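Before the break, one more example. Copy the sequence into your notebook; we will annotate it together after we see the structure.
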Amino acid sequence: MPDETLTQRPIAPTPAEAEAQIKTDTEADTSGPKDFAPMPKPPEGFDPREEIMDRVVAAIKTCYDPEIPVDIWELGLIYRVDMDGERNVEIDMTLTSPMCPVAGELPEQVRQAVLGVEDVNEAKIALVWEPPWHQGMMSEEARLQLDMF
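Here is what the structure looks like once it is written out:
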């Protein structure tokens, strides 16, 4: 025969009992309900925009130049990423060449990727040509991927 204490369900208090328990708890502790643990305080100097910017960079890294199998961040095509207090992102980027066949598509792809980041309100992409891009702007990781030492 199974142990009945394991199969018994707790009996819910009556509304009057529940109200009395709430009143007792409230009188004993005036700091408010204890349903949730208090939120931990962020570390001193914590800026939530830094975490958002990390996610923005990760989103940018999902965009690739179709002719080069390396993301545009590692290629050095992103010159500036800024975010204001309203979480609007501005990006200055370039292309490997003004004659790049995706000149009209890649900036919009970057904009859509950044807009997909939670907490980003708006993204503006400026296509710039100064300074002109050159292979020296690629990261070491990109050079390794392309066998360009």
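The two ends are 76 Å apart (CA to CA). Residues 76 and 138 are 5 Å apart (CA to CA). Try to locate both features in your own notes.
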